[in-house]
Structures are given as C-alpha cells and as structure tokens.
Amino acid sequence: MKWNRKIITALVMGAFSFTSFSQENDWNQKFEQLGTSLPTPNEYRNGAGAPGEKYWQQKADYIINVEVNDETQVLTGSETINYFNNSPHTLAYLWVQLDQNVRAKGNLSQQTSTRTIRDSTAAKFIESRLGLSDYEGGYKISAVKDTEGKDLKHTINRTMMRIDMDKPLKSGEQFKFSIDWSYNIYDRMNENGRGGYEYFPEDDNYAYTCAQWFPRMAVYDDVNGWQNKQFIGRGEFALTFGDYTVNITVPSDHIVAATGSLQNPDKVLTKTELSRFNQAKKSFDKPVIIVTQEEATAKEKIKSTKKSTWTYKAINVRDFAFASSRKYIWDAQAVKLNTKTPLAMSYYPKEANPLWETESTLAIKNTLEVYSERTIEYPYPVAISVSAANQGMEYPMICFNYGRPKADGTISPRLRAGNIGVIVHEVGHNFFPMIINSDERQWTWMDEGLNSFLERETKRLRYPDLDITWGSPKGITRYMKGDKSNIRPIMTNSEQIKQFGYNAYGKPSSALTLLRETVMGPELFDAAFKEYATRWAFKHPMPADFFRSMEDASAVDLDWFWKGWFFSTDYVDVSVEDVKWFRLKEETHDPERKAKKVKKGDLNTSTTNEEVAAIDFSNGFEEITVIDTDPRFYGEFQNRVDDNAIRTKLANKNMYEIKFKNKGGLVTPLIVEFTFTDGSKQLEKIPAEIWRYNENQVSKVFILDKEVTNIVLDPEAKTADTNLEDNVFPKIDVGSKLDKYKEDK
Fold first, then answer.
1. Residues 175, 176, 182, 183: is their CA dihedral positive or negative?
2. Model pTM?
3. At the top level of CATH, which class does the domain 247-408 belong to?
4. Which CATH superfamily hosts domain 438-566?
5. Using DSSP, how many helices (H) and how many strands (E) does the chain show?
6. Which CATH class is domain 56-198+213-240?
7. Is residue 736 pLDDT above 70, yes or no?
8. Mean pLDDT of 730-736
9. CA distance linking residue 474 with residue 31, whole number of Å
10. Has residue 555 got a pLDDT over 90?
11. Is the pLDDT of residue 384 over 70?
C-alpha cells in the first residue's frame, strides 16, 4: 500500500493541531518558571505569597504639634515618636526620612538632573530647570532629644537622618524620642512638589496642602533591612504603620481637612457648621454642604487674626497629611458599605465650582464602593478630596486633586473626565499603597499600576460615558512597539524608569486588564486579587508576594505572563501567516487516492516554495482522505476505533489550518473571530500555552460546520497586538478592511 505522507502525519501526530519543536525556534524559554528569579520563600513570606508564620513589621506612633503661619508661610513643628522594634534583630540606630530636604540647595535631584538649553523657553521653566529659584528649602532641625531632654547624636545625609541611640534597641523594646523642626512652605506654582501652598492673588489668600511635612520613620523590614534609599523626587515612600495624634494650629477662620477623625469639632466649628457636619454623617443619598460658597467667600475678605487648633487622631496609618484655608467650601456624604459608613468629604475654593460640588464627593463614593468590593472593605472613618491646582497626590484618607472650570464656569467634557479620573485614582490610593503598603521607593507599579487598573474598572462600572482606553491593552500598543532604547521593564526601580506614565501606570494596568478579561477570566482574577489584598492589608508586600498570591488563589500558572509583561520589553505582534482550508474527500474508501485529482486549494499566504501567494478563499478547499487505521498503530491494544464513525464526524466539516507567527516576542493568548457565509460569527479563544513548544510560530486546526469568509485575530483589541495589518484574512482589499477594523475599535 502506498501511504500519503500528509495522511500519515495527520494520524500519527495527533489529528491536525500538534505543534513540534522547530529548528527556527531560538527557545527563549518564555514558559520557564520564575522560581529561580524570585526570592526564596521563608518563614516571613511563604511560597503561597502570604505572610509567613513569623512575619513581623515595625510600628511608629506620633504625637505632633504643628503650626502654619499664614503671614510668613513657615511651618513649625515638634513631634514625639515612639518606635517599636518588633523585629527579631537588635538595632544600633534608627533612620528617619527628611523628605523636604529634596528641595534644599545642592540636593541630589538638582545635582544629577540632565538638562539641555533651548531657545525661546518660558522663564518659568528656565528658573525651575536650571535651579535659579530663590526659594530656601529643606528642614531646619532645631532639636533631636530623648525622653529626658538629652540631645541625641544624629547625622543628616541629604533626605535621610540617622539617630544614634545610647544603647542598642533589642527585639521587643521601644524607643521614644522627639524632633523639633521648621521649613519654608513653597509656592507650588514655582516649585514642583506634592505639598506647598497655592496663592490666590485676586483675594490675597492661601490654600495649604501639607505633605511630607514632618520627619517620618523609614521602614525596617525582613527584605531590605533599613529602606534608606534617598528621595530624589520620583520614587515615593516606604512608610511604617502607626497611630497619630496631631494638633494643627491655623488662623481661626481656616477650615482644616486631615488624615483621621476630628476630635474637637465643637471647638473649631460654628454651631451651624457642627449641625451640618452631624447631619452629613446620616446623609447617604446626597452631600450636605457644611461650609457654603457664600460663607467661604465672606471669610476671604475678613482674615481673622485669631488662632484655632484642630486635633485629629488616626489609627494604624502609614502617613499623615492635611490641608488648610479660609477659602474652602466643604461638603460631605456618608457611604454605606457592608459594615462601615465612612464619610466622603470634599474641600474646594470657589474657583473649583460648579465642577467640584457636582463631581468630587460622588467620585469618592463610587471609588470606595468599587474598591471595597474588589479588595477589602474601606476601614477608615473618612475619605477626603481637596482641590489643588495642577495636582494629583495621595495620603491616608486625604488626597489633593486638580480640575477647575474656566472663569465663567464652563466645564468641558475633557475637564470633567480628567477631574473624575484623578479623584478616583487618588482616593483609590487609600487601598494601594496606604493599606496594602508596598514600597513605592522601589516598585512604583505595585501601587500606581494596581491602582490605575482599579481606577479604570471604577470608571467602566460607574462612568460608562468616559473613555477608558488608557490603561487598557488597546491603549498601550503605541508605547510597547516603540524604541526599545527608551523602554524599560515594569520591574525597574522608580528612579530608573523611562516613560514613567506608561511604565508605572499604563502598562501594569493594561497587563492586569488583559489578565482579568482574557487570560484568567473575571471570576478567577477577582477572587485572587481580593485574596492578595486581604492577605497584605496593613502589611508590606513585595512583588513576589503579588505574583505568588495571584497564582496560589487561582490555580493558574502565570509565570510566563509575569516574565513577558513585567520582566521584559517584548511586545505583542502576532500575524495570521498561512490559512489552509480542507474538507474530507467524498470518496473516503479510496485509500490509494485513485479517484479524480484532488483540487489544489492550498491557501498558503507566503510566497515561498515558488508558489503564488493566495490572498483569499477563491481557490476553494483541498480534499483530504482519512483511511482505515493500520493494525500496527494499535500496538498491544485489543480494541479498535470505529474508522467509519470518525469519517462521519468529519463529513461536511470545514477544516481551517491557521499558522500564527509571533513577531513581537511576547507570548499571548489568541482570540480568533470567524465570519461565515451566512453572516454569523464565532469566537475561538486559545490560551497562551499554545506557544510552549515553539515561541516563534504555531499552527492550529479549527473544525467548523460553516464555510468561512473572513478571519480576524484579536477582533476586539484585547491582547495589545501592536500591528493590525497582518491580523486579517483574506488579504484582498486589506486597506479597506483594516480601516473598518480600526474604526470599529
């Protein structure tokens, strides 16, 4: 018997979909496990991605007195820190962060900045970029003492201060000490920064947003020891949880918003304000305006010379921030969660209305509800949004956000979308990293990326009219196919990242969106993501903890995904290279193929083998023969398959063999859409593991009832494929098909 080579291959190699190793494959092992790259699990952080049985973390409690001088714009403070050594180690010294020193003359950021000179540059930018400002920044440390009033030896190294104790601090002990300091609050219009003040020349008033305003304990943990990497300006903060009591002294006509719960509302609020404040705690349907625009505008003109002290307490937070101004309008609304009813509150000057009165508190409410469902229930008593020009910055329970209408009150759709987006994002930071407390100084993506993903989810669920391309696979394609010399992996330290917004925000969010919608599915992803958040709430997770938790809680091997999306700069570009159409030959009992000559319908789209490339289905199908199984293929088995039954299953079926080529290097799931002659469509989803034997190209056979007229790869732009031109078949009139494809997307 003369055997046809194609028939033998189909029978022996597994019926149409087997992919063998290729000599062309350079075998980069994209499916190799990450085990050798991640830290070894131990008793502090286990292999499941959860805190180990001996996990520990330090604690630092603060009592702080601070005053803002509204005449000189100087902040003066004194603090007592009680530091708890919960580690198994003895500590010879402590490290304190002095973040304001990033603006001291000769700071590391200024010394290492790389600038060029351009003609016709605005004076404002020349001043900041070339360090011409007269602003005198940095802390003035006036005292560092122990509880007995004795001076403690301390050494200031730029943005870090080492405090030498008289004797080592043993495991289980605590050490209490005090620091007195002051600094000049900066004008954020001139000095780019997270805190500072905004000046309103029309009414000669200030709004203060005070952040990184006090010396703060650095983190000491089981991974890095002391986290004492200098603050250069981009990499944010690694901070220790603790309890705060903060007394804030300001002019008596100021309204103060702050981390924590107000302890003395009866002393700092008017009777009317206090009544409205208590009413807001029971208002779940709409905000209550505690300080109206008319009342705030009236105070702008009077400027009280008296002082008031607002006392706030916050339990188990990693930081403390506050805002203060006589210009603030203030509204609040209670949010009904599963077991808690936090207050959503907004503070804003008249210049922010009518936008803020309409959108801010509602955005807080939406954020708390969606994030609480996806992570943990929001545990704090308040969540605050403060209007601050050209800013978006977050702290526990409070954030500072941009977005103001034109002078005539005009609100463009773009302004509204930007304002909602920044409020959702910054309020969302309460969860990442204020509660799930990652190290921002090292890994920006662990808070910005995860938070950008949930920001997009919140907008998708609560604001269907807003565009959510940013942070999606579709929105990342231009960046991912860009110049590789200007791109670094997500797993890059904050200070070394290039294209910061894409790398730390957009790409991680896109990756998680792809992971949820295409790789894992919403049910598995949401459960695993919630498990990670629950495990690491009020703790200090590292990247490996996130990677391992997501796999542990889902039973999905994601090492290939982390390697490709987080550790490499590969990108998705998969092409539909070849399409072949087969049907079973009608004369199925002609094993030697002596019947009429098989119609040549090889739809190879390449131009190799001296064949003319076929670009559509006009050549028809190629007939194949399925012959009776030779007894030798059964080996020792005594039973037999029903050859005729198998042929019957294939009768009148259309078999399409598609070759996919991985041009971008990033392995990816395949989503294939078939359009049939009757106009109906069918979607096939193939997991990324299809590339495990050959990372460069794979072939797969699809057995379909109907005849296909059109094939599209990634029809809904869900995989971040960077080149749509090679995603379609037939290739006749590719231009018009592609234009319609892009228009639809």
1. positive
2. 0.90
3. alpha beta
4. Neutral Protease Domain 2 (1.10.390.10)
5. 17, 31
6. mainly beta
7. no
8. 60
9. 24
10. yes
11. yes
